Give the backbone structure.
Amino acid sequence: MASIYIHIPFCKQACHYCDFHFSTSLKKKSQLVSMLCKELVLRKDELPAEEIQCIYFGGGTPSLLDAEELKQLFDTIYTHYRIAENPEITLEANPDDLTPGKVEMLAASKINRLSIGIQSFFEEDLKLMNRAHNAKEALESINLAKAYFDNISIDLIYGIPGMSAARWCENLAKALKLKVPHISSYALTVEPNTALHKFIEKGKIKPVDDAAAKEHFQILVSTLTANSFEHYEFSNFGKPGYFSQNNMAYWLGKPYLGIGPGAHSFDRETRKWNISNNPLYIKALEKGELPQEMERLSTADKFNEYIMTRLRTKYGVGIVEIARKFGDTYEKHFQKQVIPLQKEELIKEEDGVYHITEKGKFLSDGIAADLFYLEAE
Ligand code: SF4
């Protein structure tokens, strides 16, 4: 089982916090879609034994695709790849794109899951982040989507400067009232070279308050789990039957093919990444070349990736699985490294499976790093 990820590198405007790869000039959109199709054809034999279970349109803003562009992509995928019987096909959408006509068009295509970038239901948060939609569009887009889609996820951001715990609670209450079956929620992070970083440096925006973000995370977990959402990955909450299959495949180490500028691919042995530049991507594909780099993963790389992703999920890290996948050296390394983390009550073990505790949840990246195997060992 494998997934195809397609990166749509265009956005109407730049959100102040974003460091993803995108362009706000849409002039080359249709040309780029043709090159995505060309890349799909050129790479059709990369995962020969795999049936495609998930297709994910991410970005950027995939809801900027029109009906013709989507059809072109689906025709190419269905002609050249072996697609499972009931694939999960997700499209990330921004609320301002979800007009009645657009939602109807998406529902008539093969897309069966929408992931809507709400981020907040409050005008002041949306303005601070320079989102292209307003609070009214945030609400309306979900109601419109619900008329056509059952499988809907929304993204919410917490830890926004100036966001009180009360406002965060209200955001969650609004989300619960809308009865969406999946919520992904992230702390606002200040990446270098973003507008947000500059505004904070210049004192125009208050810095992100880590203590507030931690409090918001605790509110998030307690509120959603009390409302029958399962906290199945650090940033993801789903009702039974609505976990993101695409993300699960990634966390469980299944292969994926990343198509488009900046997209990453993984085939269990190597990681590849495409150039993050739209004109150079187009130029290379026009010549029939793949603008990508590759690294072969060592056993240590694979072990570290396993620790990093699994510790964030409800599945945890299994000692038998470590021995089977990576061998004795890694099993012994893990058993030695985990002892201090257990003593500090950051990790707990049950039947040979290790999970991060409530106390450790907001420290998961540091905990994983303590368990990493360094090649020099
Ligand atoms: S819409 Fe998404 S990808 Fe585009 S700038 Fe905003 S956060 Fe980044």
